[in-house]
TrEMBL record:
GO function terms (MF aspect): structural molecule activity
Keyword Signal: yes
UniProt record, GO biological process: bacterial-type flagellum-dependent cell motility
Signal peptide: 1-22
Function: Assembles around the rod to form the L-ring and probably protects the motor/basal body from shearing forces during rotation.
Subunit structure: The basal body constitutes a major portion of the flagellar organelle and consists of four rings (L,P,S, and M) mounted on a central rod.
Protein name listed in UniProt: Flagellar P-ring protein
Organism name: Acuticoccus mangrovi
Pfam families membership: FlgI (PF02119)
Primary location: other
Family under the similarity heading: Belongs to the FlgI family.
Species classification: Bacteria, Pseudomonadati, Pseudomonadota, Alphaproteobacteria, Hyphomicrobiales
């Protein structure tokens, strides 16, 4: 039996221990949100067209000969003879039209298109895109775009002032393209389906396979999933269920995704993102700023009276160096919360944290992948 006098000492010792709060567990996520079906993908379309109806903000045909050539070709197809006639219109702009063709989209469906000027037009506000065929990588036409252009940018200028907000030479047309050809492909008749992870990881792939097998053993009485590598999980579809219904049931299952320890740094914006699994071995560091200041104070020297000399300017340079106090601190991270608390305790700015993390990585104490953008 423990003596009573030792109980207060034991409580005091426990209260003196540092408290380390564990990071909250990762949230479970549906399989459909972290994977895609292999072969089910979008297709990119592109086309060249003309935007008409601009209020004097179109291409200068003298500086954009391709716009004049396209305009003449369009008028020729309409029966208007303009060959050899110089055009001076400023209400037409040549644009590149792009769109994304979703999988399994049918003929007659509508998709959004985006367009941007390729000439010297100053604004596409108020313009209308004429019929523009959109082709895929195989050169075949899959959609045709046409309609009024929506522009969010503003570009207004006068003789002595100009106001610009956003990009006025780019816009979009919601539901502006009509699908004319369907991309071949279907899930019907496939006995094997492959799931691709959006963020490849071995443990996540294994968890997906385990969750699917646990469900299918109760649903169909057998295991049908197997992880192939860190990126793909193979599913053998039961014969008595369709592919669409099968993927709907599998995609609703929840798993807890895992990810490698990673630190992402964006030096342009000073953004630092530290993953949950990042660990830092115990290191001692000191960080201080050094300021080098060079000041030029030129001095004007006047000649003596009646010396017939000249006034000259002599340079005078003052150089000073200031070094801020740097505190030596011990930083160790057994979990993400402890690491962030240790960096904040030193009182660092984002640029300082970036420099410290890069140096800790060089020293071999940062147990994570460091990505600098």
């Amino acid at each position: 039996m423990r003596p009573r006098a030792a109980i207060p000492l034991l409580v005091a010792a426990l209260l003196a221990l540092p408290v380390v709060l564990a990071a909250p567990p990762a949230e479970a996520t549906r399989i459909k949100d972290i994977t895609t079906v292999q072969g089910v993908r979008d297709n990119q379309l592109i086309g060249y067209g003309l935007v008409i109806g601009l209020q004097g903000t179109g291409d200068t045909l003298r500086n954009a000969p391709f716009t004049e050539q396209a305009l003449k070709s369009m008028l020729d197809r309409m029966g208007v003879a303009v060959r050899g006639v110089p055009l001076r219109a400023q209400n037409v702009a040549a644009v590149t039209v792009t769109a994304t063709l979703p999988p399994f989209v049918g003929v007659g469906s509508r998709i959004d298109v985006s367009l941007g000027s390729i000439g010297d037009a100053t604004s596409l506000q108020g313009g209308t895109l004429v019929v523009t065929p959109l082709t895929g990588g195989d050169g075949k036409v899959y959609a045709v775009a046409q309609g009024p252009v929506q522009v969010s940018g503003i570009n207004v200028q006068g003789e002595a002032a100009q106001i610009t907000q956003g990009v006025a030479t780019a816009g979009r047309i919601p539901n502006g393209a009509l699908v004319e050809r369907r991309v071949p492909g279907s899930l019907q008749g496939l006995d094997t389906l492959t799931l691709e992870l959006n963020n490849p990881d071995y443990r996540t792939a294994a968890r997906i396979a385990d969750a699917v097998n646990a469900y299918t053993e109760k649903r169909w009485g057998r295991r049908i999933a197997a992880e192939r590598d860190l990126r793909t999980v193979v599913l053998h579809k039961p014969q008595n269920v369709g592919a669409t219904r099968f993927l709907a049931e599998i995609g609703h299952l929840e798993v807890t995704p895992d990810a490698p320890a990673r630190v992402v740094i964006d030096q342009r914006t000073g953004t630092v993102v530290i993953g949950q699994n990042v660990r830092v071995s115990t290191v001692a560091l000191a960080h201080g700023n050094i300021t080098l200041r060079v000041t030029e104070d030129p001095v004007v020297v006047q000649p003596d009276p009646f010396s017939f000399g000249e006034t000259v300017v002599e340079p005078q340079t003052t150089v000073s160096i200031e070094e801020a106090d740097g505190k030596l601190a011990i930083v160790s991270g057994t979990d993400l919360q402890t690491l962030v608390h240790g960096l904040n305790r030193i009182g660092l700015r984002p640029s300082d944290i970036i420099a410290i993390l890069e140096t800790i990585k060089t020293a071999g104490a940062l147990q994570a992948e460091l990505i600098v953008q």
